[in-house]
Amino acid sequence: MVVWLVGCSRFGSSFGPPSGASPGLYSTTTGLKNLDREFGGPRELFRDDAVINYSNLCVPDTSFVVKKEWRELKSVPKVLPVGMPGGILLTRDGWAIDEAEVPNIEWKRYQRQLAAAGVSVAATEPLASALPVPDYFTNVFYDYYPVVGVSYEQVVAFCKWRGKAISYMINRSKPYSPDSLAAEHVVVESRLPTEAEWEQAALAKRGLPFGRKCTESLLEVNPKAATYFKQRSGTTAYISQIQSDIKAYNRTKPSRSFINYNQPEPYFLRLLTPAYVYGGPTNDYRLYNLLGNAAEMIQERGVAKGGSYRDPLAGCTVTSRSTYSDPSPTVGFRCMIRATQPNRK
Known about the structure:
Elements lengths: L8 E2 L2 E2 L21 H4 L8 H4 E4 L31 E3 L6 E3 L5 H13 L35 H22 L13 E5 L3 H7 L14 E6 L4 H8 L5 H13 L3 E3 L37 E3 L5 E3 L15 E3 L7 E2 L3 E5 L5
Parallel strand pairs: 9-12
Antiparallel strand pairs: 1-2, 3-7, 4-5, 5-13, 6-13, 7-8, 9-10, 10-11
């Protein structure tokens, strides 16, 4: 029996905090074992979900959300009663979509596991000239920020690796380690979403430009996070000045969009890079940053959806598309994932 540390919320219930809410305790989006042993334990990092507090949010509308539970799907192996960790059920045949964009730390894990298997990681390196800041991939500050600066081919390879890695972990942990011909053998598939799947996750059928009725709410910023905001924004202001300005900002009872687009901001909230993958409220599918933050690759090559932190709000709608040909500081991804037992009759 496999015991999963599930860090996602799904329709009708919650299994705890998002996977990135306790760095090192939960996996992020690969569904593999937690990150403690690989990365030296949890690190004390300020997170956007802790330092920017939104309030008076819209009441969630689940009228267009798939209301199936994992347990109702005959295609889902019984060993996975709560579905795929980090995944939100999207289709009735068991495909889930990642609750968040794949972060840098999961790409680092990918590289580590390839290296441990004796595989060169040179072909997996993000393109240095396509990073938003030079140390974006190497600095632990950005570990839970979306991986960008990677190519379509690199992302497709990552998704395939992830499916194989999770399949291996599940089957190895079951009694007798069933071989690929056994009825108990579990196959995990992972791939990029199609444009139609991505738009379904963005609730395009609702006919609203952003898939939900509101895109902004009141917020309060934590002045104790001034050092965090200094690095995140790239400001040269002193910490004491940032703290003072945050307090003054809070006194105005501000309202802000929780879509990370190129919006008018006080200097300490400006985005030098994409932001924390679990920051801000989710959409009604309980997905983080589907719009804004990093534009997301889909199966249709050269097309990215959702807009980015450098785009205007009009470029972050559920139907807008952008194009790319090479690795970009604004383009990341999330995967689709499904587990089946193809030999079971």
